Amino acid sequence: MLKKATSKIRNFREQAGITQEVLGKRVGVTRQTIAAWENGDTKATFAELVGLATLLKVPVEVLLGQESEEPGLLFRADDTTALTAELRTLLSKKSRDYHELERVLNLSPTVP
Prior knowledge:
2 domains; 434 Repressor (Amino-terminal Domain)
């Protein structure tokens, strides 16, 4: 696991409202292991990292801090069942269109 992932695990876990203990149980490790990953004391295996990304509902690349050349969009909702595949596709297209508009107008994208 890359060093960048350590703080990202904590950030995404906290955003998801999940404790270290709950995340550990879901991934199949102890709370202490989650804490060690978040502190950068130990590294997760690739399989564990994929499990973390799946549970935290983020792409592995985002968790690792890798930048994509294509703009992306993370989805957050109280009820994740509302984000159907069709809705995700539509929102992703709108995000790409907005990114293209920013590029054409020479605007710097901002993240709240």
